[in-house]
Structures are given as C-alpha cells and as structure tokens.
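Both lines are retained for reference:
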Amino acid sequence: MTSSPRVVVLAGGVGGSKFTLGVREALARRGAPQATVVVNTGDDLWLSGVRLQPDVDSILYALAGVNDTERGWGRAGDTERVNHELQQWDAGWPWFTLGDLDLGTHLARTGWLREGLTPTQVAERLSRRWPLGVRLLPMTDAEVDTRVLVEGGDVMHFQEWWTRHRARLVPRAFENAGMDAARPAPGVIEAIAEADVVLVAPSNPVVSIGPILAVPGVREALAATSARVVGVSPIIGGAVVRGMADVCLAAIGVETSASAVARHYGARRAGGLLDAWLLAEEDTGLAPDVAALGMTAAVAPLWMRDVAASAHIADAALAAAIR
C-alpha cells in the first residue's frame, strides 16, 4: 500500500460520522486522495411529505462542522418552530423532532427528488455547499427503509423502534423490503474495486453496516477487490459505545463483544468480509481469538473523543491494512 492510499469507508450513524472525520484528517496529513464514504440509507423514511436520510445528513453535517455534537444528530443551534407547528396540526411524529435548519435540508432533497434527481445526485448537490473533503455516496438509490419485527408480531419503521421506543421492544428481525431488487448506487462498486483500503467504521453492525452489505453486489465487490478490508470494533470492553447496538446484536444471535462482532463479519479468506480487525486496548486479551478467525488482529485506543483521537484510530486501521 502506498503512503497516499485510496480509501473507501462503509459508515452510518454517529460512530460513522466521527470515524469519517478522523479518516479525512488522517488522509489529509498523508496528502492522500479524498476518501469515498458509502453511507447507510436503511434509516431513511418519508415523514410529513419529505424524504429524510438521517445517516447521510449526520455525516454531511459532521464533515461540514455544523452538527449538534451534544445531541449527536441534527444541526447545531437549530430551532424547532416548524416542528411545533406540525404537532399542532397533529402531523408527523410527535416524538421525532425535525429542526428548522434540518428541515431545510429535507425540503431541498425532496424537491430535487421530485424533479427527477437520484439520491446519489442529491448527495452530490448537498455536498457542494461545504468543503467536505470526502465523496459521499448513498449505498443505493433504491428505497429500502429498515423495518423491525418486534416480539408480538408488530412491524414498525426502524426510526419508530429506535427513537420512540428506545429499542425497548424486543426485536425478532430486521428487514429491508425491496433489497433484493436494489442495486449499489453509481460509483460504489467502482470505488471498492479501485481502493487500496476499505475501512468498516465502528457503526452498528446490524442496522448501519448490515444494510450496506445486503445491497446485492456489494459483498461480491468486497470479495473481489485487491484492497485490504479493515474493520474497527464498535465494542469496547464488552459494551457498546453509544446507542442500542447490543440489542440489535442480540436479535441476530451475536454477543456484545469485539471478538463476536469480528466473527459475525468473518474473515475474507474464509468467505467473510475482513482481512484485519482493530480492537480497543481494553480488549487486548481477545486478539488471539480474532487472529484464530483468520484475520489480522490489531489493538489501539478506540475512544473517539475528538477529531485527533479519531484520526489516530484511522491511522491505526490503515497500519493494520499494511500488516
């Protein structure tokens, strides 16, 4: 691998946005080309007539430096006058807040979609506003919103399960209707084929990374690429960093441990995804278990407290690719 590698990142959610900031910083220091970030769109939904893409927007806002770092979603300094008015009309979801600035993004996106642009073209147009330093691609241009089958038989949109119920309803399955007919967004397969390194962000393995890997053709592209595929553990010391990824993992029979998630992804030499897995220092003792799976096990501090720390993690992941 050269000192200025071509990098593709698979990402979603807050963990994905923080990691992407680190990758951008690490590559800029190396004078490397901008990374291509393939973003989960399984969280997407229609609400009050507008199209929301929560993971795309989280990463967009983080790269632009306008994200609300305290809440972990939306725009910094946003107001909620329109959201309040929607509630007065009994429209939308009273438990799902749309900030006014955030709503401006959704309205722009919806207008462009109505004019015939694809989600890929919309992402490119949204990216023009700020110097992001990466190329953002949705995983697919198809609508494959995540649905959750909960105990008792009810089916609901992922955002209702995650935001309204805070994942307290026991999930039995996650599904993306229409995924079989979906195709990777233009540029996704080409970026993977031309990459030197593919980094799997420390995002939720089930509902952030899982949908990306489920798009027909993506796993095949990852199996065929000459790039090294390196994953970063979203589990530190046997616990999730934030969110409810442990609940999602339990639903698919995976325990909340760094080695179990590595096993879930699998080693590429054995038909899985990864060539290397980056564990937290707290999980150093699991390195032999990971190596036994058939992938390189590397260890580094994984707390993404700021951009510098995230860049350190990105550097460690790139170093694992060399090994």
User: Anything to note?
Assistant: The CA atoms of residues 190 and 221 lie 9 Å apart. The chain is about 40% helix and 20% strand. The chain has a mean pLDDT of 96. The first strand starts at residue 7 and ends at 11.
